[in-house]
């Protein structure tokens, strides 16, 4: 093979390489970016636009329904009441990305005097408090019972997501320094590998018999992995009995992809 032919082959290969590289760069520039809304199974998704880096894939059905446990309410002053309902998920591997609930406070005749409606989520093999604060009773009628119903349950696998590790330390309860009302305080620590934009805290106070005396909620924003945040909740009124125990429940919604995105 003479030198002239080798030069021609080298020139042709150079042109092919050049135009191939240009074509690849143009493809990168004009091709649509893979997203969780492109209608395709790509990225690390386990289904179309779900799983992996996207929101968990929904599951059509599971073996066990959500369980409604404790249902109660406590006076909160000025003819208002605070609702406390315990909901559990008995399924070990499947959670609930969203469920709808309706809570009704009823009088002795079954008439509805106050209503709380909303949406919530629940992790696999977990339970949580559903809270309604400051529900005002109609016509100054005191409620005697709670009716609670769940619907529109959206079952979902956690896929590659991890259950959050949120722990509470240094819990304290006592009277306010002013002498009016009481306060609960403590530290919540994010011991997960993810940064969370929202961590919800529920504090439930109980008497000697375990009955609920008071409840309140708060939210901590932008708690990074390995960091902790202090919280304080107050009650401006006296309880009918002495507070003997304080539960603090910390939860965060890992089904919301915006809750732990990078770069808080």
Description of the molecule:
The chain has 264 residues and is mostly beta strands. It has 2 domains: 96 residues, Immunoglobulin-like, CATH 2.60.40.3230; 94 residues, Immunoglobulin-like (Sandwich), CATH 2.60.40.3230. It contains 1 helix and 13 strands, in the order αβββββββββββββ. The strands form 4 sheets. A 4-stranded antiparallel β-sheet has the order 1-7-4-5, with no helix packed on it. Strands 2-3-6 form a 3-stranded antiparallel β-sheet, with no helix packed on it. A 3-stranded antiparallel β-sheet has the order 8-9-12, with no helix packed on it. The protein is elongated, with a radius of gyration of 27 Å. The N and C termini lie far apart (63 Å).
Global mean pLDDT = 86
Q: Rough shape?
A: elongated
Structural class: mainly beta
Element string (H = helix, E = strand):
HEEEEEEEEEEEEE
């Amino acid at each position: 093979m003479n030198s002239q032919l080798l030069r021609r082959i080298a020139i042709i290969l150079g042109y092919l390489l050049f135009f191939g590289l240009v074509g690849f760069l143009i493809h990168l520039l004009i091709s649509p970016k893979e997203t969780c809304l492109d209608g395709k199974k790509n990225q690390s998704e386990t289904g179309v636009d779900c799983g992996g880096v996207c929101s968990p894939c929904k599951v059509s059905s599971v073996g066990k329904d959500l369980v409604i446990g404790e249902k109660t309410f406590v006076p909160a002053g000025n003819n208002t009441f605070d609702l406390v309902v315990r909901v559990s998920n008995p399924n070990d591997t499947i959670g609930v990305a969203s469920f709808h609930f309706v809570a009704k406070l009823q009088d002795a005749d079954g008439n509805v005097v106050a209503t709380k409606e909303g949406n919530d989520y629940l992790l696999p093999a977990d339970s949580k408090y559903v809270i309604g604060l400051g529900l005002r009773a109609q016509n100054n009628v005191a409620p005697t019972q709670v009716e609670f119903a769940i619907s529109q349950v959206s079952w979902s696998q956690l896929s590659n997501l991890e259950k959050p590790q949120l722990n509470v330390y240094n819990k304290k309860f006592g009277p306010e320094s002013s002498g009016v009302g009481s306060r609960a305080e403590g530290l919540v620590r994010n011991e997960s590998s993810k940064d969370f934009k929202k961590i919800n805290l529920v504090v439930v106070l109980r008497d000697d018999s375990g009955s609920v005396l008071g409840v309140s909620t708060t939210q901590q924003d932008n708690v990074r992995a390995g960091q902790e945040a202090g919280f304080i909740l107050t009650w401006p009124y006296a309880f009918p009995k002495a507070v003997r125990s304080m539960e603090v429940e910390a939860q965060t919604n890992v089904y919301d992809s915006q809750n732990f995105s990078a770069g808080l």
